[in-house]
């Protein structure tokens, strides 16, 4: 279990699952796997009837978003974002990392009819970004990791808002109201987990959570929002225990399964000039747009607030953070599915673009993180040597 909690292992599992899905889709097994993905599984006696692929992206991924929401709440209450002064700088960098990739995408897709896919390259995958940092970043100071973590968390908030606002059409207000009641009941029940009835309360929380998820799905709002809402209203301490218990499941099962399912795409047998505009928009916006946007936003954030409280982030550090932000992966794949739900061929090309753009960002980030870590290690050795000389004198 401890191994699966590792950021390095989580990133490797995610990448391996995506590669396996892409290989499987373009093998003799591809047609059968895609048919299985499209097969519907209904729950008797309920209006719930989803394909296997949607049970994964709408159902299981809601658990991942629950875990993300618990981390968000913790960071905003007692963590690295518990004050405006701490949150404002990574927030500006995150905003740059949303605006610039969206503009790059729109520049490629202007007049194509696919401009609605602009949110796809705006997301950052926390698991991958921190995984790359953990693998290649030995020696990097904690302030940079904290900045990147805050940046990715704020980026996720924007992604959640985009999913809720831009990918919801004609919501069923009654179902949404009932879901809101379910969220409130879930929050109230979580306060009873410290009592002697905690086992009964735990069972009730699971039931209320499942009902709330169903109501959100039936309302027309993307069902992963249910996970976000439930994670935010749950009492912090028990929520952190649940997050700890769910982490091996999300890292070892849910995220790899989603990556495999999302990457289950046949590579189109077309010439590069026949690929749709969204392919090129996503492919360029993730590694280039994110790097420019985050670096520029991070640089501008250095002039915000009292000088003595500004974090010392070098230009090299900001460029590195920007490269890590270009690893879109999980949320970008989800947004791609939502944006091009009515255009399967474009969605397939978008998936390939997300995978390729994220792969480019991973390679660039790995190189930059390694070089930055090496420079910090050299600086630390020079300081130690200087201190030893002083002591010797």
Automatic annotation (TrEMBL):
Annotated membrane topology: Multi-pass membrane protein
* The keyword Transmembrane helix appears for this protein: yes
Can you supply one Gene Ontology CC term for this chain's record? plasma membrane
Reactions listed under catalytic activity:
Na(+)(in) + 2 H(+)(out) = Na(+)(out) + 2 H(+)(in)
Please list the coiled coil stretches.
Answer: none
The source's domain of life comes to Bacteria
Mind listing the GO biological process terms from this record? regulation of pH
**Pfam family of this protein, just one?**
Na_H_antiport_1
Has the keyword Ion transport been applied to this entry?
Answer: yes
| Annotated compartments | Cell inner membrane; Cell membrane
> Which residues span the membrane?
52-70, 91-112, 118-137, 144-167, 173-190, 197-215, 221-240, 252-271, 277-301, 313-334, 354-374
**Which UniProt keywords are listed?**
Antiport, Cell membrane, Ion transport, Membrane, Sodium, Sodium transport, Transmembrane, Transmembrane helix, Transport
Q: Which GO terms describe its molecular function?
A: sodium:proton antiporter activity
**Record function comment:** Na(+)/H(+) antiporter that extrudes sodium in exchange for external protons.
Sequence similarity:
Belongs to the NhaA Na(+)/H(+) (TC 2.A.33) antiporter family.
Q: What is this protein called?
A: Na(+)/H(+) antiporter NhaA
Tell me what organism the protein belongs to: Herbiconiux ginsengi
């Amino acid at each position: 279990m401890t191994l699966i909690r590792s950021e390095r292992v989580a990133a490797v599992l995610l990448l391996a699952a995506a590669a396996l899905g892409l290989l499987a889709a373009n093998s003799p097994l591809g047609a059968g796997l895609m048919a299985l993905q499209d097969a519907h599984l209904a729950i008797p006696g309920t209006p719930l009837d989803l394909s296997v692929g949607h049970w994964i992206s709408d159902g299981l991924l809601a658990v991942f978003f629950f875990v993300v929401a618990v981390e968000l709440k913790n960071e905003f209450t007692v963590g690295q974002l518990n004050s405006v002064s701490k949150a404002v700088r990574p927030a500006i960098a995150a905003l740059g990392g949303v605006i610039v990739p969206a503009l790059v995408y729109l520049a490629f897709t202007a007049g194509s009819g696919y401009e609605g896919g602009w949110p796809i390259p705006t997301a950052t995958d926390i698991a991958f970004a921190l995984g790359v940092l953990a693998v290649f970043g030995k020696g990097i100071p904690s302030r940079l990791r904290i900045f990147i973590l805050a940046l990715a968390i704020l980026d996720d908030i924007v992604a959640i808002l985009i999913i809720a606002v831009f990918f919801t059409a004609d919501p069923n207000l009654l179902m949404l109201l009932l879901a809101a009641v379910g969220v409130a009941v879930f929050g109230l029940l979580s306060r009873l987990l410290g009592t002697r009835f905690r086992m009964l309360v735990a069972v009730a929380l699971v039931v209320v959570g499942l009902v709330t998820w169903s109501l959100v799905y039936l309302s027309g709002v993307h069902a992963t929002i249910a996970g976000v809402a439930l994670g935010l209203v749950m009492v912090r301490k028990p929520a952190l225990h649940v997050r700890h218990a769910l982490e091996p499941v999300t890292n070892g099962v849910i995220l790899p399964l989603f990556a495999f399912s999302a990457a289950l795409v046949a590579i189109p047998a077309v010439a590069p000039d026949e690929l749709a505009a969204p392919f090129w928009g996503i492919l360029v916006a993730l590694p280039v747009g994110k790097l420019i946007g985050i670096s520029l936003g991070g640089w501008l954030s250095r002039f915000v607030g009292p000088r003595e409280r500004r974090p010392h982030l070098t230009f090299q550090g900001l460029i590195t953070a920007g490269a890590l932000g270009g690893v879109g992966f999980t949320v970008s794949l989800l947004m791609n599915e939502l944006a091009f739900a009515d255009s399967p061929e474009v969605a397939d090309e978008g998936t390939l673009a997300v995978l390729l753009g994220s792969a480019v960002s991973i390679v660039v980030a790995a190189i930059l993180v390694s070089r930055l870590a090496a420079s910090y290690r050299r600086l630390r050795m020079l300081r130690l040597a200087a201190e030893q000389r002083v002591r010797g004198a």
